[in-house]
Amino acid sequence: MTTIHPKITEVLTGTFKVPAAEILPESTMDSLEMDSLAVAEFAVIIKETLGVSADSEKLYKDATLADITAYIDEAIDSAESEATVPVSNTR
Description:
Blueprint: H1 6-14, H2 36-50, H3 56-60, H4 65-83
Helix pairs in contact: 1-2
């Protein structure tokens, strides 16, 4: 079972008042009764807090929370690896 990214849970419960019991890996924004405006706001919050941007309609509306978590984790890992400067021992 995939765990849900803690920031997703925090945003859904805190900002959108989604009951924590409904935040499951297989949940979608539709199943959580998030309308298109809420989904767009969710995408903005995730971008502002985690630096991960995505098309809210394509990624968030039909994706499960497990899909969104995987996307966020991958984007964060990619950003971190790009920020790392390789060190060369050759002169």
